[in-house]
Amino acid sequence: MNQTKYIFVTGGVTSSLGKGIIAASLAKLLQARGYRTTIQKFDPYINVDPGTLNPYEHGECYVTDDGAETDLDLGHYERFLNVPTSQANNVTTGRVYLSVIEKERRGEFLGKTVQVVPHITNEIKSRMQLLGQSGNFDIVITEIGGTVGDIESLPYIESVRQLLWELGDENGIVIHLTLVPYLAAAGELKTKPTQHSVKTLMESGIKADILVCRTEHELSDDLRQKLALFCNVKKEAVIQSIDASTIYDVPNLMLEEGLDTVTLKKLGLPEKNSPDLKQWNEFLQKHKNPKHEVNIGLVGKYVELQDSYKSILEAFIHAGAANETKVNIISIHSEHLDVKTAEKHLKGLDGILVAPGFGNRGIEGKIDTVRFARENNIPFLGICLGMQMAVIEFARNILGYADANSTEMNDSTLHPVINLMEEQKNIKNMGGTMRLGAWKCHLKENTLANQIYGATDIMERHRHRYEFNGKYLQDLENAGLTASGINPDTGLVEVVEIKNHPFFIGVQYHPEYKSTVANPHPLFVSFVKAAVEYKNK
Ligand code: GLN
User: Fold this and answer.
1) What Å distances lie between residue 288 and 22, 281, 315, CA to CA?
2) In three state form, how does the secondary structure of 178-236 look?
3) Which of these, 76, 479, 417, 97, lies nearest to 247 by C-alpha position?
């Protein structure tokens, strides 16, 4: 197949309808039919990337192998498709403007007035086609962030309009995701908001080819007919997306509704074989029929907002299925916890995870949590900041360095067991300057880490500024903390563990970013297994 086909996904009526999940589910079905498919997301905000955003603003910042700090929807794309994404898969308005302004400064526009149309739209269009032109994909799905009608979305909608015109019939289509609300007082589902949102799209010159309607109740035949007539789409192109108990059900629900077949028809592509979802359904089967159940404490400071730890929560779903175990995540705010109350908050847990994070707030609670897990032999996993806290706890309570700390929290500590690398010391620009993306790690033989991975050389993704201070390596190892994973190029410590504990491991990287349905992450799988064993002891 020569011509890459493009699918644009827009959203109407409200935000948070789950465009990312619909895009990922459609991509999954197309992939399962044998089409090489990728998904990209265009976000209409001015930040160059979400790396500088507080998790409360925008949920977790997802990191790709190439070190891009991206929207959390890219995590869904990878978890569903099991294909890595990259910087090209996530573009923001800030990034678009930055590159246009840089070109202007270099004089590349030859004295022309630089304008939203055509300069910004040309930049958007060229980025929309970047992955398509790589030759690696038959189908590129582009999710447009925000809601149709937003001021910020206008240049994207105009770019989609132009691109559809340039690509020609059957090479590009638009799927519009809307809400069909249920009015309890009237006992009715309402189509008017959808009609208006389709009309708004029309005002920008775009006709929706397919409507995906989020709904709490089944859409009747009459209602589908009405939506089709008033929104100018074929009845078979009115797709119901009913609330599901898990996002992992959505590909099957879309299959039943025929989203993939109607899409292929509109794109003039053959259906090929019926989708191969064998592995996917085996995962679902295990996820829905657990034989065991464990309670795992997630100790962090952004626990009020579930999206802040999205990839961690999803990694537990994958690992739970792999162990045929229902994993209940008990969110615990690290600010509410100290040595005295640790027992109250943490008793009865079968495993404890100390989460990644930045800054001082809630930090002592995390250190006390580590201590509780270590002293009570509860399976423990520390991720990034969680690993750093494990090192601090060990230095304080085993080595007796009472003021041991990270220089992020206390830059005058006499025992900076976690500190900034030399390269990081003079950095003034906060965006995109952390240690980011995939780095090599060598695991020492016969360690827990080595046993978990069944390998000695791994690659994992990072996102942090501070590091284990090598000056303390000898002291800490002599006292029983093993540095079991080392970066072979820099010598930096990436994994620590404690020998005489059933399962205690801290990793400087973020294993959660690499867990997918097809490849549950070994660290999470082993952690859940350890929790089951702890519970049954
Ligand atoms: N704040 C720590 C650092 O920058 C940890 C970051 C994280 O947990 N992602 O090193």
Assistant:
1) 21, 10, 16
2) EECCEECCCCEECCHHHHHHHHHHHHCCCCCCEEEEEECCCCCHHHHHHHHHHHCCCHH
3) 76
DSSP letters, 27-42, are HHHHHHTT--EEEEEE
- Give the ranges where 347-466 is alpha helix by DSSP (H): 363-375, 385-397, 422-425, 448-453
5-281 and 291-536 in the same fold: yes
Known catalytic membership, residue 512: yes
Is 408's C-beta closer than 6 angstroms to any atom of ligand 1? yes
384 is catalytic: yes
CATH of the structural domain 291-536, one choice from 3.40.190.150, 3.30.9.10, 1.10.760.10, 3.40.50.880: 3.40.50.880
pLDDT in tens, 308-351: 999 999 999 999 999 999 999 999 999 888 888 888 899 999 99
What is residue 341's three-state secondary structure?
A: helix
Selecting among 61, 213, 231, 384, the annotated active-site residue is: 384
Peptide bond into 181 cis (omega under 30): no
The reply to whether ligand 1 has any atom less than 6 angstroms from the CB of 8 is no
What is the atom index within ligand 1 of the atom nearest the CA of 358?
A: 1
Ligand 1 pocket test, candidate residues 311, 358, 417, most atoms within 8 A of CB: 358
DSSP helix/strand/coil, 115 = coil
Q: Is the CB of 384 under 6 A from ligand 1?
A: yes
Q: Note the pLDDT tens digit of each residue in 98-151.
A: 999 999 999 999 999 999 999 999 999 999 999 999 999 999 999 999 999 999
How far apart CA 530 and CA 347 sit, in angstroms, is: 17
Q: How far is the CA of 467 from the centre of ligand 1 (A)?
A: 9
Please report the pLDDT score of residue 71 as a whole number.
93
Q: Is 387 annotated as a binding residue?
A: yes
pTM above 0.90, yes or no: yes
Ligand 1 atom nearest 434 alpha carbon: 4
Q: Are strands 380-383 and 351-354 parallel, antiparallel or unpaired?
A: parallel
- Extents of the domains making up the chain: 5-281, 291-536
The tokens describing 432, both together, are 């995109």
**Residue 503 corresponds to which amino acid?**
F
The CATH H-level (homologous superfamily) assignment of domain 5-281 is P-loop containing nucleotide triphosphate hydrolases (3.40.50.300)
